[in-house]
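Issue: copy button drops trailing tokens. Both records pasted manually instead:
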Amino acid sequence: MDTEFNNDLPWKAPVEMYRFERNHCAFKQVVGGADEFNDSIGKISLNFSYLQEVVSSCIIKLIKTNKKLGMIIVSELSFKNKLNLLGSMFQYYTPTYEFNSLFDNQNETFDELLKACFKCEEFRNQILHSSFDHTNKDIVRKKPPPKRNRA
């Protein structure tokens, strides 16, 4: 019995489904002009991303490994866990290392720095996970409904 096996997939590969091609339109024509509100949200997002990279780089340096292995380790951590790990590593290394600091009390300064980083995360999450009403020139943040208690 000769049966022919069909190797064709019933779906298309992502590359085939989403063929993004240039259409010679300017960015402004496609998405509209820039405005101060959207620019501000973009800056918050990009600056927080940079902060995450710096924290990750510090952890990689402190665990004394190569960048590739270090990125494997830190990429699995949330920002909060990265900060907690960085704080623990700072405490571990403090008795044996002198960190490059302009401040007299390194422990107090580092604790304040970690607190500021946690605040940055809170602010970023508050902005990026909110909805906003654009009425006239006023921009009002809509609070999301509270989560239901799960029993």
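Record 2 (pasted manually too):
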Amino acid sequence: MEEKKNKEPTTPEVKTPEVKKKEWYMNWWGVVIAILFLPLFGIWWIWNKTKASNKIKWVLTGLIALLIVVGVVSTGSNNSTTNTASPTETPTQTQQTAQPKKEEPKEDTSDLKAEIKKAYDVPGIEVTNLETVAWDECEIKLNGDYERTIRNPLQPNSPLNNPYPLFTKSDGTRFNPDTTAVKNVVIKCKINGNTRYGAFRFHN
């Protein structure tokens, strides 16, 4: 006899329902992030994905619009502050890179300090340099017509007698003290590269 095999009872397979994942904008955290970084998405989400009343939708839309305006205004004020501050920094940078100008020596145009007097042992004009430095390339004029050039430097406090015959006009005429009185003396000398003058009068 054939032995009947006992069939094991089969259990029906139970299918687990698939859980649909919510879209990111259907989660609360997704909505918060979207409103913070994409304000226009918040307006779209309020009007298309919520079941709130129109009154609430308008209130929320107004709040989002207000946040957008505040953000734009604050950004513009920060940019203007940065732009106005930059020009004040430019002169400071320019002053740091600019090289200091060298001061040029000022020309000394003061009168010569001298003692002028008539010499009688050897008739002439005695000139004494009262400066602290030597005079160079001196020219002495009597009465504006008779001139004498001194080649050697005149040292300080060293009197130099200039006999009258050494003074001549441009035509070669020599000064004659017997026929012409000395009325004024003008000295022109160079001191440290500067040309300086001294004028003196005699009262006869």
